[in-house]
Every structure is written in structure tokens, then in C-alpha cells.
Amino acid sequence: EAQLVESGGGLVQSGGALRLSCAASGLNIDNDWMHWVRQIPGKGMMWISRINRDGSRTSYADSVKGRFTISRDNAKSMVYLEMNRLTVEDTAVYYCGRGGNLFDPWGQGVWVTVSS
Amino acid sequence: DIQMTQSPSTLSASVGDRVTITCRASESIDRWLAWYQHRPGKAPHLLIYDVSTLESGVPSRFSGSGFGTEFTLTISSLQPDDFATYFCQQYSSYSPYTFGQGTRLE
């Protein structure tokens, strides 16, 4: 089955860091843009970051620019999100998704909780 | 940023009902709109893109319409599997992509 699986979430103190991973299985992501999207409890989805197929182009939402870094390792079919200087406002479920402008498939998401 | 506003936020319905969810964009997005289904604890699932094109495998009871700033998702006859949250996404602008806040169908 083609799927994306996120990992690396958890509880971290404000100011701390986490690295999320997104593993692709049953599908080839080498030639695809990949994205991270998050959902704060009770709110809608918010796009966070994207990376092109060879990692040479990235972009970020203003709210995470300078704190988060997206990267990928096509040999391992992995995408990463390095999150630094976390704040309580970063508490959310984080999803990875494959695609250009559309997200298909998505992963099931991973919780990130930032405590004060 | 292009704001996407969905209504209603919650919709109560029964099996067999016809339901419609609306998504409004703060500026014209032409036909660059997608709809997703999201069940709790599961991965969101692409249903419709380019306003009205059904993703492969999506039942024909799902349909989408609209242009510019106003869009609708219609489910013609609700099935038990359809009770989930639905959200729209614009991809007219990728800086950033933006989503509606979701409609929970219960």
C-alpha cells in the first residue's frame, strides 16, 4: 500500500527543538514536491513548508521561516522537518504530503506538543 | 494570503441525505480548488481537484462546482462511510497554499 508515515513528534519545552521524519513506502517520491502541513486543534490545516524533488528549492510559511528547515533524502525515501525555537503556538498535528499543488497522499500525522 | 472560508462548520445529516458544503475564497482562484475528506486519526484523502474532477476511485455521489470565489461540494446520497470532516484547499497561490477550516459531517 502506498503511504506516508510521519514520526518524531512528542512533547518538548518552549524554546526546544524536534526533528520530524516522513517515510514513503509503496510509492516513489523522488520526482515529487513534498510538503509539511499542520493542524492546530480546533483549527484548519495550515501549509508549513515544501521542497522540490532534488532539495534545491524550498519555501516556508512566514510563521515558521527562520525556525524550521525542510530537507529530503531520496535514497531513503525520506523527508524531514527540523523545528527549532519551538513555541506553544507550534503545538499541532503535523502531516507530510506529496504533490505539486495537490496533496496526495498524506500521512496520518504526528503530534507535536510544546509546553511552556 | 488567500483566505478560504467554509460553511457550515458542522452539518448534521442522515444516511441517504443530499448535503452541500460551501467554500468561499477571499479573491478569485479561478478553478484551482480541491476538496479533501478527513476521518479522525486517518490520513486526509483527496476527493476532487480543479473544482469538479473526481480523483480516481472516488464515488460518483461526490461532485464539485463553482468558479472564482464560490465553490460547493455536494454528496448526493450520504453513505455511512461519508461521515467525516471535509475541507477545501486553494492552489491558485502557492505562497502560501491555504485551506478552509473544515466542515464536520455528523
Question: What order do the helices and strands come in, and which of them pair?
Answer:
The complex is a heterodimer of chains A (116) and B (106).
Chain A lengths: L2 E5 L2 E4 L4 E8 L8 E6 L5 E7 L6 E3 L7 E6 L4 E6 L8 E7 L11 E6 L1
Parallel strand pairs in A: 2-10
Antiparallel strand pairs in A: 1-3, 3-8, 4-5, 4-9, 5-6, 7-8, 9-10
Chain B lengths: L3 E4 L2 E2 L7 E7 L7 E6 L6 E5 L3 E2 L7 E6 L2 E6 L9 E6 L7 E2 L3 E3 L1
Parallel strand pairs in B: 2-11
Antiparallel strand pairs in B: 1-3, 3-8, 4-5, 4-9, 5-6, 7-8, 9-10, 9-11
Q: Helical region count of chain A?
A: 0
Could you tell me how far the N terminus lies from the C terminus of chain A, measured between alpha carbons in angstroms? 39 Å
* Radius of gyration of chain B (Å): 13 Å
| Structural class label of chain A | mainly beta
So how many helices of chain B?
0
Largest inter-chain contact set = A-B, 23 and 25 residues
Low-confidence stretches of chain B: none
Oligomerization state of this entry? heterodimer
- Mean pLDDT of chain A, to the nearest integer, reads 96
Strand composition percent of chain B:
over 45%
What is the count of β-strands of chain B?
A: 11
Element-level helix/strand string of chain B: EEEEEEEEEEE
Q: Strand order of the main beta sheet of chain A, please?
A: 2-10-9-4-5-6
Q: What share of the residues of chain B lie within helices?
A: under 10%
